[in-house]
Write a structure and sequence with these properties.
This protein is mainly α. It is built from 15 helices and no strands. Helices cover 70% and strands 0% of the residues.
């Protein structure tokens, strides 16, 4: 749990009473109950004790017990000062440790309703946005990323939020608005690591829409601006593919051949080179001359049949 960082001493071992014949499960249950009773009897400054105990259970892999402690805290302290933290940690355990995504979504929603402006609500929204991406609920993912950008316009991760918002729009088959988001990202990026990726996605979007001039402009801009970037060879490959689509085959072939020594998948480039050379060869082959003196060969049989037809029709 990200917010529980202090290393706590291990929870008291139950090894001693083993000889009494009491099962390990019952001993653990009694220990939890005893801890909760003690915690409940403490004064108003004991809220942190719940998180200490939850941490111990979490660190030992006893996620269900950690959840019980956090839920008990929420019950005992209806006006507690750390309820937002408790709900956040509860949702994280449900989502990551136990894979209960439905419960986690409900817990995070409860957190965001009760503490809409808090830091824990912001972090919960980030988790929800990613969860909706995984389930391909693009409308929900778009809403979450829009809210993240709106609520924290200066957040250091805002470029990532906008980039993922653009990808969600593309996945929803809304390319024009995806292009708009990438344009905003590039206008605001100022050296962001998502700038180069935005160029690639923007050029690809124009390419898929058949806007090859725009796509070519974007890919060439990437190559000029980021010549040594790890995605530079990808941009060069996409530039060559765009030239090929535009029918500028000699230029495309030159780009492919220059890319062969450096591209991470030379087989893909070789396939393009061979296919392009083959098409260029066929397109440049001279046409077969037409023999205008040619007449179909006839046989006595076909001549006789034709003569009989002419007699009957008078033609």
């Amino acid at each position: 749990m990200a917010e529980i960082k202090r290393k706590q001493p291990p929870f008291p071992s139950a090894a001693g009473p083993a000889a009494s014949g009491i099962s390990l499960g019952r001993r653990i249950g009694w220990l939890i109950l005893f801890s909760l009773v003690v915690l409940t009897a403490c004064g108003p400054n004991s809220e942190e004790d719940y998180f200490s105990l939850a941490t111990q259970f979490y660190d030992s892999g006893r996620f269900e017990d950690a959840i019980k402690v956090l839920k008990k805290y929420l019950e005992i302290y209806p006006q507690g000062g750390r309820r937002d933290r408790a709900l956040y940690e509860l949702g994280r355990i449900e989502y990551y440790a136990l894979g209960r995504r439905g419960e986690a979504v409900r817990t995070f929603r409860r957190l965001m309703i009760q503490h809409p402006a808090g830091d824990f609500s912001f972090e919960a929204r980030k988790i929800l946005a990613g969860a909706f991406e995984e389930t391909q609920d693009w409308d929900a993912a778009i809403r979450e990323y829009q809210t993240l950008i709106r609520d924290r316009p200066q957040h250091p991760d805002r470029m990532e939020f906008r980039f993922r918002l653009a990808l969600a729009r593309f996945s929803k088959d809304d390319p024009e608005r995806g292009i708009e988001e990438l344009g905003r990202l590039l206008a605001e990026s100022r050296g962001s690591s998502f700038g180069p990726q935005a160029f690639i996605e923007l050029g690809g979007a124009h390419f898929r829409l058949g806007r090859h001039e725009e796509a070519l402009y974007v890919f060439e801009a990437f190559i000029d601006r980021f010549p040594d970037h790890s995605l530079a060879s990808t941009a060069r490959f996409l530039k060559a593919a765009t030239l090929e689509e535009m029918g500028r085959n000699p230029e495309a072939l030159a780009e492919y051949e220059a890319l062969l020594p450096v591209y991470h998948n030379p087989g893909a480039v070789e396939t393009r080179v061979h296919g392009l050379k083959d098409r260029m060869k066929k397109a440049g082959a001279p046409a077969r001359p037409v023999d205008y003196k040619y007449r179909p060969e006839t046989t006595p049989e076909t001549t006789r049949n034709l003569t009989e037809k002419e007699k009957k029709t008078g033609k």
